[in-house]
Amino acid sequence: MADKVYRASTTAPVNIAVVKYWGKRDATLNLPTNSSLSVTLAQSDLRTLTTASCSASYPASEGDWLLLNGEPSDVSGARVQACFRELRARRAALEAADPSLPKLSTMPLHIVSENNFPTAAGLASSAAGFAALVRAIADLYELPASPSELSLIARQGSGSACRSLFGGYVAWRMGGKADGSDSMADQVAEASHWPEMRALVLVASAAKKGVSSTSGMQQTVATSSLFQERIERVVPQNMAVMEKAIQDRDFAPFAEVTMRDSNSFHATCADTYPPIFYMNDVSRAAIRAVEQINAAAGRTVAAYTFDAGPNAVIYYLEKDTELVVGTFYHVLGGEIDGWKNDAVKGLKPTTSLDGG
Ligand code: DP6
């Protein structure tokens, strides 16, 4: 049986935060300066598919490897290593407790991972990527771990990845322990709790982001005075209002907090020294379009949010699909439902939220 190949496949969806994670209090353990909350998008639209395999027949000299969208990817970085180490340690504990189990923890790992969206478009690919990587290996190792336990491991790959282990509405609680054992994600509500929720992804630019999230947030923590206000006052309040809005399925406060929190996050980026700008002219046009839609309707119909890049995600309810998607189509002259022009400009409406 030495040549037996053990294998497991899984998918993980992209999540887009409505209360943003921005800042680390411990860069090694990847512990955040604040809690955050996100919405998991539909797997059919944006997801990573990952297969993990291991075998005693894999040459030890090659070690572990990862093929990402068909290209070899470096696994020697601290983040991937932390995930491999944690997962192997849990498998080794199972093997120690039950000597009849095959010694998978000692075999080289081969990981093959594919995104069904353009990686370069900056659409939270690390979140789906690390969530899928961790769950694929956990499945391969048959670990009896809950999604929250796996979120502790995925967090060390990329902070936002800990939220992609759940579908629906997901909170990452910052925790307070120095070892990070309480900094994990939980599900605030299933997607089915609020089935009318929709997300429209507007790809304003497929260019790779100028300043990575990891280094951008470190610069913000080190230099922005606005940041203290954000983590001490703004975010705790946004988390509380957002959780209630989700429980109550109340779109107006959901939308207001989403937009305010995005603005607050980008304000701390502008307050970073030297300043960091993630939004571009297309992003600002999207903000104006949302304002116009809401003003014309006389109620809150849509909410925008931007991560560490110019692409917009617009949240709205199903009944307002024509109003929102129609307006964006008209205002931006975009292509609906396609990654046209190499995804340089495209609108991708999701049909629903699911996953997890
Ligand atoms: C703006 O999770 O990519 O998307 O932990 O350094 O990998 P690392 O950062 P990452 O940061 C995401 C930042 C954000 C906000 C969010 O998703 O909450």
UniProtKB/TrEMBL annotation:
Recorded GO CC terms: cytosol
Keyword 4Fe-4S: no
EC class name: lyase
Domain Mvd1 C-terminal: 199-356
Record bears the keyword ATP-binding: yes
Catalysed reactions listed for this entry: (R)-5-diphosphomevalonate + ATP = isopentenyl diphosphate + ADP + phosphate + CO2
Domain of life: Eukaryota
GO terms under biological process: isopentenyl diphosphate biosynthetic process, mevalonate pathway; sterol biosynthetic process
Classification via InterPro entries: GHMP_kinase_C_sf, Mev_decarb, Mev_diP_decarb, MVD-like_N, Mvd1_C, Ribosomal_Su5_D2-typ_SF, Ribsml_uS5_D2-typ_fold_subgr
An annotated Gene Ontology molecular function: ATP binding
Pathway named in the protein's UniProt entry: Isoprenoid biosynthesis; isopentenyl diphosphate biosynthesis via mevalonate pathway; isopentenyl diphosphate from (R)-mevalonate: step 3/3
Assigned keywords, A-Z: ATP-binding, Lipid biosynthesis, Lipid metabolism, Lyase, Nucleotide-binding, Steroid biosynthesis, Steroid metabolism, Sterol biosynthesis, Sterol metabolism
Domain Diphosphomevalonate decarboxylase-like N-terminal: 12-185
EC number: 4.1.1.33
Family: Belongs to the diphosphomevalonate decarboxylase family.
Listed name of the protein: Diphosphomevalonate decarboxylase
